[in-house]
Amino acid sequence: MGQRWRAIGVLAIALFAVNVVARLVIRFGFDGDEAAADRVTLGMFAVIGLILAGVAYSWGRSRPVAQWGAEVAGAIGIALALTMFVGPLLVGRSPFADGSATFFWQVVLYLVATTVGTILGYLLLTTLGRDHRSQSLQEYAESGTGKPRRTVRR
Q1: How far apart, in whole angstroms, are the C-alpha atoms of residue 150 and residue 33?
Q2: Confidence (pLDDT) at 146
Q3: Cα–Cα distance measured from residue 68 to residue 58, given in angstroms and rounded to the nearest whole number
Q4: pTM metric for this prediction
Q5: Buried b vs exposed e over 68-99: b needs ≥16 C-beta within 10 Å?
């Protein structure tokens, strides 16, 4: 059980760290340039999506979706809370400094990026036939053809 929480915590911290790096780059590199800030933010969402695609690919190989899906969802929830409430404070801003509409749009964009990344990683895994279910079905099919049926004499 401790390993599951460790994996959730590490993933949440990694997602939060990507956001912190993006905020610091915007703050010190492009302060006041909205177009550059938007490009950095878009890059941050792409990196977060790629991280989650990799996690879905690697975790989906060895465990069923019901198990790792809940862990990924928990990590996304923790990372989202940290990103929305702690992230702005690290660069000297309030979470609601740009208004509630901007706050909620950031939440929506974060959830879209994480969902798309996770789904694309799992779709790639499933397409290649390397997910947990496909591997289990393949092992089952191979175990049934290993020995021919024994005939019964009377």
Answers
A1: 77
A2: 60
A3: 10
A4: 0.84
A5: bbebbebbbebbbebbbeebbeeeeeeeeeee
